[in-house]
């Protein structure tokens, strides 16, 4: 598939592929226990973040099932990286993807994650022509669940103790939106 035109601009953000100079900002985000609390990874070392950054820098579009694109959410004013948004290609046959978002605690509650996640839905449905996009979160992560609801995604599942998460049984919420629902919401 063709590479999207970057940066993607929102009212307050630029969404762009990660670059080598983003190491410190990405480390600041991924090394925090409060950020990793509800995510599948533990706080990262600088070396782990450097490896992840290298992987992200090489993946700028979705070319085949299993690919993912991570974009840096950068404040238009000041150029500070405040988050990371992603789109994963789950199934080519069924045209399904998954969005994700991680924002620095200092920049949460300002609508920035919603701006960025909206653009990832637009990218998935518009540019990559996906039929269905999901989002998943730990059931205790009220902020992420609330954001997916505000995006217009419907809660489709609440899996109870479906996996061992950081040593304990954890619940998972799954939200979804169809391309037709996205189109209808864009016209509203």
**What is the class in the CATH system?**
Alpha Beta
Q: Which class best fits the helix and strand makeup?
A: alpha+beta
The number of distinct structural domains comes to 1
Strand order of the largest sheet: 1-2-3-4-5-6-8-7
Going by CATH, the homologous superfamily would be Gcn5-related N-acetyltransferase (GNAT)
N-to-C order of helices and strands:
EEHHHEEEHEHEEH
Q: With helices defined by DSSP (H or I, 4 residues minimum), what is the helix count?
A: 6
Proportion of residues in extended strands: 25-35%
Total beta-strand segments? 8
Helix content: 25-40%
Describe the structure in your own words.
It is a single chain. The chain has 188 residues and is an alpha+beta fold. The protein has one domain (8-187): Aminopeptidase. Helices cover 31% and strands 34% of the residues. The chain contains six helices and eight strands. An eight-stranded mixed beta sheet has the order 1-2-3-4-5-6-8-7, sandwiched between helices. β1 and β2 (13-17) form a beta hairpin. α1 (23-30) packs across α3 (46-58). The longest helix has 16 residues, at 112-127. The mean pLDDT is 94.
Q: Would you summarize the structure shown here?
A:
Helices cover 31% and strands 34% of the residues.
Task: Chart the SSEs and their pairings.
Elements: E1 8-9, E2 13-17, H1 23-30, H2 33-36, H3 46-58, E3 68-75, E4 81-91, E5 96-103, H4 112-127, E6 132-138, H5 142-150, E7 154-165, E8 168-178, H6 179-187
Parallel strand pairs: 5-6
Antiparallel strand pairs: 1-2, 2-3, 3-4, 4-5, 6-8, 7-8
């Amino acid at each position: 598939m063709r590479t999207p035109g970057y940066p993607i601009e929102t009212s307050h953000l630029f969404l762009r592929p990660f670059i080598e100079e983003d190491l410190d900002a990405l480390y600041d985000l991924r090394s925090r226990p409060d950020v990793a609390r509800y995510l599948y990874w533990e706080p990262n070392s600088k070396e782990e973040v450097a490896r992840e950054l290298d992987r992200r820098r090489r993946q700028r579009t979705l070319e085949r099932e299993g690919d993912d694109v991570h974009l840096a959410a950068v404040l238009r004013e000041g150029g500070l990286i405040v988050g990371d948004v992603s789109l994963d290609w789950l199934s080519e046959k069924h045209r399904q993807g998954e969005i994700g978002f991680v924002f620095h605690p200092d920049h949460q509650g300002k609508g920035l994650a919603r701006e960025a996640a909206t653009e990832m839905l637009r990218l998935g449905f518009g540019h990559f022509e996906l039929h269905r996009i999901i989002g998943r979160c730990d059931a205790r992560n009220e902020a992420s669940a609330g954001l997916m609801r505000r995006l217009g995604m419907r809660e489709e599942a609440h899996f109870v103790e479906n996996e061992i998460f950081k040593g304990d049984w954890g619940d998972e919420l799954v939200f979804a939106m169809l391309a037709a629902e996205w189109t209808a919401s864009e016209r509203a």
